[in-house]
Amino acid sequence: MTLCIDRERCQGCNGHPRCADVCPGNLLVLGEQGQIASREPDDCWDCAACVKVCPRQALSLTLPPEVGGRGSRLWARQVGGKMHWTIVDGQGRTKNFVI
Amino acid sequence: MRSAVENVSYPEVLETDWLVIGGGAAGIMAAVRARELAPTCRVMVLEKANVTRSGCLAAGINAINAYLNPGETAASFLQYVKKEFAQQVRDDLVLSLAERLNEMTDRLAAWGLPIYRDEQGRYRQRGRASIQINGEAIKPLMAAALEASGAEVRNHAVVTDLIVTDGRVAGALYFDLHTGQFTAVRAKAVLIATGGASGIYQPNTGGAARHKQWYSPFNAGSGWAMALRAGAELTSLEMRFIALRVAHTMAPTGTIAQGVKAKQINGDGVNYVPNYAYAQGKPTTAELLWATMEEEKAGRGPCALDTRGLTPEQGDLLAQAYLCMCPTQVLQWADAEQRPETAAVPITGSEPYLVGGHGTAGLWVDVHRQTTIAGLYGAGDAVGGAPKKYVTGSMAEGAIAAEHALDHFLREAAAPHPGWTEALEQAWRRARQPLNNDAGATARQVEEALQAVMEYHAGGRSGGYRYEQSGIERAQQSLAQLSKAGAALGATTPYELMRVHEVRDRLLVAAALLVHQSHRRESRLPLYQSRTDYPAPDPQLDRTWLNTRRSHGRADADEELKLEILERVWEEAVPREQASEEPVPEEQAPGESAVRGGISA
C-alpha cells in the first residue's frame, strides 16, 4: 500500500471527499466510519492527486516494502499559486520544496 | 462502501452532436475546438474518472516533448520520427500533427501553463523536440479550459460500447460509477480518446507496487476493444512501446538524460552506449533500451544515469522537476538517504505497453483521424501510426478530428439511426451481463493470469522482450481459456462492473496483439518488436502495416469475437528524398554541459 490515510486527521469532508472525486483510478471511497478508504490499496498509481486536494493533510504517499521502502512520507498542498511539498524520512528529517 | 447495482432500469437516452470518449489531452482539445468553431455545437465528454486529474497527466509533466524548436520544421520532425521508428510511420499523420505542435503549445501557455523561457524570451529548449515546463497542474488547467468551453462533462462515466447502425456511428452507452445507472448518448460523430493499454504484461514489481508503472495503469485499452467490437481497425499492435525508466519508481529518464545530460553507465561505471553499433550512428530510443538490456544480460548491470558530480543546487532542481511529474522519485531519494549528486540513478526497461503517443499501436485512421467507420474518429494515444506525438501531438489530433467532424457530420440534421433500438439493446445486454454472473474469480485474478501468460510467452521483460512462434501459439491457447474465465466474471457494484469490463477489454486487446505478433515474421524494432525465430528485418515488409478487425458477424455478449488480419501497404506521403534536409541543431553531446539554465521555482 502506497497511500497512507491518517485516521486521526481524515473526517471524510462531510460526505463529499474531494480525494475520491479526483483519483484517476476511482480507488477511494468513504468507508463505514465516515473516513476515506481504498478499495484496492495495491492499485494506487502514486500520482498524488488525492494528496494535493486533502484539506487536512490526512493523505500522504509512502514507498511499499516491495521496492525497498523504509517509511518516508510525502505530503503536498496548494498554497496560493504554489505547490508546497514536504518529505519526512524514516529518521524524522524534513525536506520542503515550494514550486 | 458497496453500492450494489439493483434493478437496473432501461438506459435513459440523451442527445448531443460531438461525443468525446475520454477526457485527456486529446479529448479535451477535441471538445474545446468544436465549441470555439461552432458555439452552438453540443459537445459531451464522457470520462471514466475526473477530467481534473484523469489519465496519463494525473501527476503532471515537466516537459513538452513534441515542439518545433527554432530551425525545426514539420518535415524535419517527420524525418526525426521516421529515424526513430525504422521508417515505419504514417507520414500523413505525423506531418499533419507536426504542423500544429507549436500552436498547441501556445494554447497551453494561454491556458496558464508555466513554460520556462531563455534569455531571448523563447521557450527554453531541453532536447531536440522538447521544452521545459512546470506542468504539475497541466491537467487541472486543461480541465478549466474544457469547462470554459461550455462542453458538457460527465465524470465517472464508464463507456462500455459504441453504438453503430448502418455502418455509421450513432452514439455510445455508459454507466455511472456512483449509481450504476446506464445512459445511452446519441451523437452525430464520436471521438475515441481513451488512451492506450497498460496491464497487458506483468508489471516489473508486484504486490503493493504492482501499479508502480510508467504508463497509467488505468488505461485498459477500452477504446480499442470497443472499436474492435464495432468493426473498426487497429494497426501495429505488435509494435509495442517499452520505456527505459528509473528502476523501482518507473520515473521518466528524460528529466535526467536531457535535463543534465547524464551519461549511461553500467555496473562497472563504464559508459556502455558507444560500445554498440547502431543502425544510423546515433542510437534511437529503442536502441538505447536494447543496449541497456544487453548490458544487464551480460551481467554488467545495473545500468544507471550517472548524476554524480552535479551540484546540490542541480540535485534540487532535478528533484523539483520530478515533483511535477513523478513525485515518488523524490520520495525514493529521501527514503534511501540518497541525493542524485551522490549516487547514480539506476535504470531498466519497463513492462511493455501499447500506446500510440510514444509508439505506433492504435486505431487505423485517415489523415482527418476518421476510422474506417463513418463518423467515428480517434485522437491521441488511441491512434496508431504517428509515434512521439505526446501531449501536444495528441491535442493536435483532437483539433484535427473536431474540424473534420464539424465539416462533415456535426452541422447536419440529426440522422434517424435505423436500428438504434436493437443496437442499444445489444450493447446494454453485453454491458450488464456481469451483473448476472455469480461471484467467482476476481477481475484482478484474471488480469494477473493474463499478464503472466503474456510475460512468459509473448515477449515479456523476463524473456528479454523477445518471442517466437511457439510461444505466441501457447499464449493463444492460454488466452482462449482465460477468455472463458473473463466471460464468467461477476460484479455486484458499479466499480466491480468497471473492473470486469476492463479485464475483458484487456483480454481482447491481448488476443489482437497475439494475432499481430504471430503474423509479423521479422524483427523490425529492437525489443519493441523482436523475434528469436526471425531475428532480422524483412525488406518485403517495408511499409506494410498489419491491421486487425472483427472478421464477421456481430459482437454479442455470448459470442466470442473473431479477428482477422489485413496487410495494408501505405505509400509515403512525402518521398524520403524530399523530406527536409534543412540543418537542425545538433543535440549537445552527453556530459557536455550541466543543467541548461536549470529550473527556477
From TrEMBL, chain A:
The keyword S-adenosyl-L-methionine does not apply. GO terms for molecular function: 4 iron, 4 sulfur cluster binding; metal ion binding. InterPro entries: 4Fe4S_Fe-S-bd, 4Fe4S_Fe_S_CS, Fe-S_Ferredoxin. PROSITE patterns: 4FE4S_FER_1, 4FE4S_FER_2. SUPFAM superfamilies: 4Fe-4S ferredoxins. Keywords: 4Fe-4S, Iron, Iron-sulfur, Metal-binding. The keyword NADP does not apply. Residues 1-33, 35-64 form the 4Fe-4S ferredoxin-type domain. PANTHER family: ADENYLYLSULFATE REDUCTASE, BETA SUBUNIT (PTHR43687), FERREDOXIN III (PTHR43687:SF1). This is Dissimilatory adenylylsulfate reductase beta subunit. It comes from Heliophilum fasciatum.
UniProtKB/TrEMBL annotation, chain B:
The keyword Flavoprotein applies. Residues 574-601 are annotated as: Disordered. The keyword Nucleotide-binding does not apply. It comes from the Bacteria. Keywords: Flavoprotein, Oxidoreductase. Residues 17-385 form the FAD-dependent oxidoreductase 2 FAD-binding domain. InterPro entries: FAD-dep_OxRdtase_2_FAD-bd, FAD/NAD-bd_sf, Fum_R/Succ_DH_flav-like_C_sf, SdhA/FrdA/AprA, Succ_DH/fumarate_Rdtase_cat_sf. It holds the Pfam family FAD_binding_2. Signal peptide: none annotated. GO terms for biological process: anaerobic respiration. GO terms for cellular component: plasma membrane. PANTHER family: BLR3196 PROTEIN, SUCCINATE DEHYDROGENASE 2 FLAVOPROTEIN SUBUNIT. This is Dissimilatory adenylylsulfate reductase alpha subunit. It comes from Heliophilum fasciatum.
